[in-house]
């Protein structure tokens, strides 16, 4: 009985396959990429039962889910009555020709495929000479059984089907055709098909061959993973290696009682960049419990490669199958199975047996495989560098490498390891170098060219690591050789210190932040940082040149940081320049490249100086370092003609040109002094210069090369002041403008020279924008400078001598005190702007700065349309232009109109014209990328822009001036602005009118179908958004009477809508916003040449209709003889009387007593309530009656100036009715 349990110990299935006891249960899984099925086989004394995995595992899964169905099936007799669905199908193969033989163990090798010839030979040998042989063999598997009589037997377990040949298929087709056609014609009975063999029935295995040994009894058999070899243990303490395919005994091991065996396949591992053959090897593991020994043998004829002493109570676990029960076609992540494990009860552990591939090779063929194994071991040790033993073992492994490829791979891996330590790397490359020299002496390397190339690399790395360790741990020495600077250089240094001294304040010792102290111990973070710096240091050198270590110039971006980490300790504590020269000489680093590192180290340092003495001290150290490097360079430093340029110093000047910081100026000063001293010493030591007189010597001290230093320092001084200012952004004392993203620029001289004439203006404008200073302060700086210069011109010595009275002295003292207060409270941005203007007076004029600021604000707004504050900031800058800069202003307006404003305004016009009003937020976001609430503000700003545009039309010519030090390059913005043609005034006025109309519609929420075509004629609609600088080919016609009426109607609607802007809070009336829109409406009416009398009439009527009689009376003074306004006001008075009559019956009777004509007029007003003038709510009180009486009086006075009409009589009756109501 075979029982199946879950991992929880619950029995879920059981079935009896044979009545005898079970000897072994084993599994088989096919190799990868094979279509064969996996199966489990059960070995009995007389037979072997095979169960397919595709049938077993689905049944087990279902049984696990419904394990209650298996209850009560423990007996073998119970399985007979079960349905077929609950029984597991299997194949039973009986061992043939036992004749009293005993089977102790058996192994199934899986399906075999043999050739036709081998099949015929096996059939003839096994069945007989006269046997009927099939042309195609049946599919079968080989079973190897071990026991007694025979000792080893080889059997064929043939399955119930066979492959069919093409001839057999043709024969079957002909036979079927004959039976179907001729059988029906002549009545021949059809042949019965033979039933297919039942796979669960017994079938006998056919014997291939047997080994008989009467004294030998086989106990166990272990099959290799590939199924080609097997190992058999027997009662004579032998271990026999068997070739299963050929049926041959290959090898016998003696003296292993109760041995346990296993096979371990090993693949040859490869490394990237190292070619291997991807070979495979097979090892045999023999565990002898009686001896307490575990041995590893190389197959098939290999030696014993290893032996271990283990516990005597262990167990060797061997597995030859992979994952079973997987549905065919399902992809499973492949994993290499653990073929052999050793269960060690002595320490309750499971040990895995790992064998290097090179153990299977001979000494001559195992170098690469052995090095690969050592390299993997080295990689594992590199993960834990804190252990000193690991470091020693790493160095030992590196010395044991024998192939160039693995050494190169190891070197590449070390260069990528950020935790690599300099001293450990030095030991490893030393081990490489020693092993290479020893191999070269023994002439073991055949590839001499590759070996020599690798030797050069290793020697270079060795020297480079030694140089790094020497410089990082310098010998401390005192330094007292300070530079002698002239007054001009001291002034420049002092100016830079004043600009940058407050930018990098040293840490406060009283602060709570911990300050790193220099001690013998370093933290983990500092050490990792240092190790990463070493890897970066190795990466910047070219290592394949013999006796030279030049820099890789393509990695110049990292020179500053790497040299800073390298020379920091030496510069601060070492200063032993003899040691520096010795280290450079040993390392074979060229003097040119060492000079590059020294200059980058200085130029990339942070400016942390608070006074000039600190700067001069570090400049002196830099001078000593540069002098030491120049001494290594030899005579080429000073050996050049008087009127020539030294190539050495010219290369240094090229490096300083690219310095983005102010320290480049200090480096130039230092190099100039060092070059002068070296040149003087060289001339003093030269015999040719000894006959010169003292005057000639003084005259010739300024050579052509010295003049180049003077020119460079003069340019660098201006650039350094600019860089020191714009590199560190500051905020204005009163920041009011919006902030733009700011990235500190690269202010190297090379960048400034290549940036064109407008580069200084651009950098200063960006810095001013970031400071958020108001543009009016920038314009005020020019006014203050002009006033001070004018005052200095008009003051005379005589006038200054006349001021002797004490009162005047007191007044001057007060004025001086006020000036001091103003200076102390002056904006720091303006202070630095004044300093910059001393060096760049033309580039930093107010008009130049304001034009760039306006452009940058507006361009930033065009990329962020909802943020109108940037557009407003641009217009603020435009408002500060002086009249003499209107030419720049006009050009900038032309460029901004075409680049930023034209298309958003055009989209807004199309949207409002299409909707007939300001649409909802969703449509605005979709079409113009801003909310509906932002559209009125946008149109108002457009109006302001067009006003600036129009006012700048009247301008004079403007010439641009730039500093001589600025060279040609990209055209400056101001030059492009002045190249713009003047805008056409008619187009500006037309677009101004368009913006005014759109603003009224959006701000007052007016609704009007097709508003643009209603208030503008066809020619104007055609002209909208045409080229603003191009003359029109036609004239815009004057508005006709119909268009004038439509425009007047539009403005009247705007006036009516603007009445909603009047707010009344308690007793105070807020009318300013309404009056502001009235000014805009009147200005538009004036542009359209409309009569204002109709608009004033509309405003007056709306004032009375909303109950603001006081403001209406003011407007009536302009409408003295307007009969139409009297009729409208009379209608308002009538509607008020209707409200009074509706309030009480007595009031109605009093009004009706005046006359029938008044009563009919009031009834007609009630009937036309929806089509007439709408009035606000009206409260009946004595004050309201007095106001109504005044209104009627004004109507009577206006109507009485014309011939009497019915409206005059109505006004009189209304006046009588109000008088009655008052009484």
TrEMBL record:
GO terms for cellular component: cytoplasm. Belongs to the Rab3-GAP regulatory subunit family. It holds the Pfam family RAB3GAP2_C. Residues 1-316 form the Rab3-GAP regulatory subunit N-terminal domain. It comes from the Eukaryota. This is Rab3 GTPase-activating protein regulatory subunit. The keyword Transcription does not apply. It comes from Ceratitis capitata (Mediterranean fruit fly). The lineage of its organism: Eukaryota, Metazoa, Ecdysozoa, Arthropoda, Hexapoda. Keywords: Cytoplasm, GTPase activation.
């Amino acid at each position: 009985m075979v029982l199946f349990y879950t991992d929880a110990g619950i029995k879920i299935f059981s079935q009896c396959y044979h009545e005898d006891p079970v000897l072994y249960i084993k599994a088989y899984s096919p190799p990868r990429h094979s279509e064969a099925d996996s199966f489990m086989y059960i070995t009995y004394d007389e037979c072997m039962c095979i169960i397919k995995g595709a049938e077993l595992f689905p049944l087990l899964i279902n049984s696990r889910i419904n394990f209650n169905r298996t209850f009560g099936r423990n007996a073998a007799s119970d399985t007979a009555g079960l349905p077929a669905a609950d029984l597991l199908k299997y194949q039973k193969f009986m061992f043939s020709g036992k004749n009293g033989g005993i089977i102790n163990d058996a192994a199934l090798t899986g399906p075999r495929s043999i050739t036709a010839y081998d099949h015929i030979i096996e059939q003839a040998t096994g069945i007989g000479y006269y046997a009927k042989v099939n042309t195609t063999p049946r599919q079968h598997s080989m079973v190897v059984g071990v026991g007694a009589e025979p000792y080893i037997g080889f059997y064929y377990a043939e399955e119930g089907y066979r492959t069919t040949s093409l001839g057999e298929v043709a024969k079957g087709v002909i036979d079927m055709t004959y039976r179907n056609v001729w059988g029906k014609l002549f009545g021949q009975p059809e042949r019965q098909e033979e039933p297919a063999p039942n796979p669960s029935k017994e079938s006998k295995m056919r014997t291939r061959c047997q080994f008989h040994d009467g004294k030998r009894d086989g106990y166990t058999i272990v099959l290799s993973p590939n199924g080609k070899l097997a190992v058999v243990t027997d009662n004579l303490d032998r271990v026999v290696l068997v070739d299963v395919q050929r049926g041959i005994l290959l090898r016998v091991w003696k003296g292993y009682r109760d041995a346990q065996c296993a096979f371990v396949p090993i693949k040859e591992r490869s490394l990237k960049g190292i070619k291997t053959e991807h070979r495979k090897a097979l090892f045999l593991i023999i565990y002898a419990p009686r001896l307490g020994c575990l041995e590893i043998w190389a197959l098939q004829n290999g030696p014993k490669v290893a032996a271990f002493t283990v516990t005597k109570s262990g167990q060797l676990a061997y597995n030859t199958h992979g994952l079973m029960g997987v549905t065919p076609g399902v992809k499973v992540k492949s994993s290499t199975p653990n073929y052999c494990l050793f269960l060690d009860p002595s320490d309750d552990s499971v040990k895995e047996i790992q064998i290097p591939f090179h153990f299977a090779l001979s000494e001559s063929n195992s170098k690469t495989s052995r090095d690969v194994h050592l390299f993997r071991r080295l990689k594992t040790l590199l993960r834990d560098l804190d252990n000193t033993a690991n470091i020693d073992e790493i160095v030992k492994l590196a010395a044991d490498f024998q192939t160039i490829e693995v050494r190169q791979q190891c070197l590449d891996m070390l260069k990528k390891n950020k935790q690599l330590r300099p001293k450990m790397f030095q030991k490893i490359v030393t081990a490489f170098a020693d092993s290479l020299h020893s191999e070269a002496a023994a002439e073991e390397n055949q590839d001499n060219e590759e070996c020599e190339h690798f030797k050069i690399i290793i020697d270079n790395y060795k020297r480079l690591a030694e140089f790094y360790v020497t410089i990082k741990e310098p010998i401390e020495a005192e330094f007292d050789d300070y530079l002698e600077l002239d007054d001009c250089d001291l002034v420049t240094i002092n100016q830079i210190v004043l600009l940058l001294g407050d930018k990098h304040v040293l840490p406060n010792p009283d602060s709570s932040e911990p300050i790193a102290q220099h001690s013998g111990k370093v933290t983990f973070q500092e050490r990792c940082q240092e190790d990463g710096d070493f890897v970066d240091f190795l990466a910047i050198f070219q290592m394949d040149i013999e006796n030279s270590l030049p820099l890789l110039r393509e990695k110049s971006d990292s020179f500053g940081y790497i040299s800073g980490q390298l020379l920091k300790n030496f510069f601060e504590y070492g200063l032993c320049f003899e040691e520096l020269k010795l280290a450079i000489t040993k390392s074979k680093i060229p003097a040119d490249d060492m000079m590059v590192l020294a200059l980058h180290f200085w130029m990339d340092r942070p400016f942390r100086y608070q006074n000039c003495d600190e700067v001069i001290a570090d400049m002196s150290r830099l001078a000593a370092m540069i002098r030491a490097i120049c001494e290594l360079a030899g005579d080429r430093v000073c050996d050049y003609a008087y009127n020539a340029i030294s190539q050495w110093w010219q290369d240094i000047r090229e490096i300083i040109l690219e310095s983005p910081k102010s320290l480049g100026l200090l480096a130039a000063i230092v190099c100039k002094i060092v070059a002068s001293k070296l040149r003087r010493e060289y001339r003093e030591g030269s015999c040719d210069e000894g006959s010169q007189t003292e005057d000639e010597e003084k005259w010739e001290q300024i050579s052509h090369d010295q003049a180049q230093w003077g020119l460079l320092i003069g340019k660098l001084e201006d650039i350094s002041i600019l860089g020191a200012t714009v590199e560190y952004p500051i905020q204005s004392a009163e920041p009011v403008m919006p902030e733009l993203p700011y990235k500190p620029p690269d202010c190297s001289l090379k960048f400034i020279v290549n940036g064109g004439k407008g580069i200084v203006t651009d950098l200063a404008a960006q810095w001013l924008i970031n400071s958020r200073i108001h543009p009016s302060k920038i314009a005020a700086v020019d006014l203050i400078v002009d006033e001070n210069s004018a005052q200095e011109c008009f003051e005379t010595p005589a006038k200054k001598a006349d001021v002797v009275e004490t009162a005047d002295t007191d007044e001057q003292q007060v004025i001086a005190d006020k000036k001091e207060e103003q200076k102390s409270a002056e904006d720091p941005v303006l202070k630095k702007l004044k300093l910059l203007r001393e060096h760049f007076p033309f580039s930093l004029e107010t008009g130049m700065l304001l034009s760039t600021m306006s452009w940058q604000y507006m361009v930033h707004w065009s990329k962020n349309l909802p943020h109108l504050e940037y557009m407003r900031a641009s217009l603020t800058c435009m408002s500060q232009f002086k009249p003499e800069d209107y030419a720049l202003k006009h050009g900038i307006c032309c460029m901004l109109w075409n680049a930023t404003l034209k298309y958003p305004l055009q989209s807004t016009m199309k949207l409002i014209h299409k909707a007939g009003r300001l649409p909802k937020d969703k449509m605005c976001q979709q079409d113009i990328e801003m909310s509906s609430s932002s559209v009125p503000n946008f149109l108002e700003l457009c109006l302001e822009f067009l006003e600036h545009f129009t006012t700048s039309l009247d301008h004079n010519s403007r010439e641009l001036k730039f500093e001589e030090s600025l060279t040609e390059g990209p055209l400056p913005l101001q030059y492009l602005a002045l190249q713009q043609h003047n805008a056409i005034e008619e187009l500006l006025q037309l677009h101004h009118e368009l913006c005014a109309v759109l603003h009224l519609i959006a701000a007052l929420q007016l609704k009007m179908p097709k508003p643009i075509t209603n208030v503008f004629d066809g020619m104007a609609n055609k002209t909208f958004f045409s080229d603003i600088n191009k003359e029109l080919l036609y004239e815009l016609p004057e508005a006709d009477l119909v268009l004038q009426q439509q425009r007047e109607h539009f403005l009247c609607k705007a006036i009516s809508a603007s009445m909603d802007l009047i707010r009344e809070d308690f007793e105070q009336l807020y009318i300013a916003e309404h009056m502001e829109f009235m000014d805009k409406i009147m200005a538009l009416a004036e542009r359209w040449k409309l009569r204002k009398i109709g608009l004033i009439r509309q405003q007056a009527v709306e004032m009375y209709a909303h109950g603001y009689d006081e403001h209406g009376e003011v407007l009536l003074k302009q409408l003295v003889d307007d009969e139409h306004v009297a009729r409208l006001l009379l209608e308002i008075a009538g509607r008020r009387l209707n409200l009074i009559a509706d309030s009480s019956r007595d009031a109605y009777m009093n009004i009706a007593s005046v006359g029938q004509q008044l009563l009919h007029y009031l009834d007609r007003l009630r009937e036309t309530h929806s089509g007439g003038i709408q009035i606000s709510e009206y409260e009946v009180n004595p004050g309201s009656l007095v106001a109504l009486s005044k209104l009627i009086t004004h109507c009577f006075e206006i109507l009485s100036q014309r011939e009497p009409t019915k409206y005059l009589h109505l006004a009189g009756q209304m006046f009588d009715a109000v008088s009655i109501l008052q009484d």
